[in-house]
């Protein structure tokens, strides 16, 4: 009797181990507040017709955020590319409460436990930069060179500069990039060691304001440093005032 019970127990354990599929990988996803984050989950061949979903916590029915049978729900949407065996869930209007652990899930019926091809770690950052900024001054009609430091690991990565203080849209609004090194007013040089330099010519007071130096990262969020540019009146005006003050 005891031997029979042991065999039954071993059989149940074997079935459980065969049916439960653990997370095959950990996906790191990054996003800025009030923007969106996309979570792309690959799954094994044979699950193309199965329902997919994104969930949090213990993935109970109350923890499921969106399924492929719904497509859209509140701030969530989902699509399934069965040809590539990848489904993508999108979380819109991100906030700090969205940061944390998620699971990519595939619904399986019967005694089979649901299949979780990936665990997801979402990090949400504020869409502002930075705690400190460098100050640069020049004059109308003149030029200025802005030095932008970067780490050695980013030597071969794309560099760029934009106006404002919003990292999420900086690359899309770039004034110049290391892939396009010169235009009418801006030029970019890179020493390929620790810094790149952006030169702005024909300055006007409209060029005054905040700028972000950006370095493209292949994984994670891009890296930024902040610069405040002040463009004063023409140099000759200041020289004239100093000469006049000296005569008095």
UniProtKB/TrEMBL annotation:
Pfam families: V-set. The keyword Glycoprotein does not apply. Gene3D superfamilies: Immunoglobulins. GO terms for molecular function: transmembrane signaling receptor activity. GO terms for cellular component: plasma membrane. Residues 117-230 form the Ig-like domain. It comes from the Eukaryota. Residues 1-23 form the signal peptide. It is found in: Membrane. This is Ig-like domain-containing protein.
């Amino acid at each position: 009797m005891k031997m029979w019970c042991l065999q039954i127990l071993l059989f149940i354990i074997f079935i459980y181990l065969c049916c439960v599929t653990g997370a095959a990988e950990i996906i790191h996803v990054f996003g800025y507040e009030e923007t969106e984050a996309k979570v792309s989950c690959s799954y094994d061949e044979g699950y193309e017709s199965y329902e997919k979903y994104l969930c949090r916590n213990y993935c109970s029915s109350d923890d499921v955020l969106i399924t492929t049978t719904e497509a859209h729900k509140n701030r969530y949407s989902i699509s399934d590319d069965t040809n590539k065996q990848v489904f993508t869930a999108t979380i819109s209007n991100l906030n700090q409460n969205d940061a944390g652990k998620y699971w990519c899930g595939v619904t399986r019926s019967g005694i089979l436990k649901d299949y979780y091809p990936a665990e997801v770690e979402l990090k949400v950052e504020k869409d502002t930069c930075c705690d400190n900024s460098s100050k640069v001054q020049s004059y109308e009609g003149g030029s200025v060179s802005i030095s932008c430091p970067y780490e050695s690991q980013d030597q071969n990565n794309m560099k760029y500069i934009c106006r404002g203080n919003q990292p999420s849209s900086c690359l899309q609004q770039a004034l110049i990039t290391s892939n396009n090194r010169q235009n009418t007013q801006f030029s970019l040089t890179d020493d390929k060691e620790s810094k790149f330099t952006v030169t702005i010519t024909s300055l006007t007071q409209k060029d005054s304001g905040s700028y972000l130096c950006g370095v493209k990262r292949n994984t994670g969020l891009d890296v930024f440093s902040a610069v405040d540019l002040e463009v004063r009146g023409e140099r000759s005006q200041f020289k004239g005032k100093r000469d006049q003050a000296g005569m008095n």
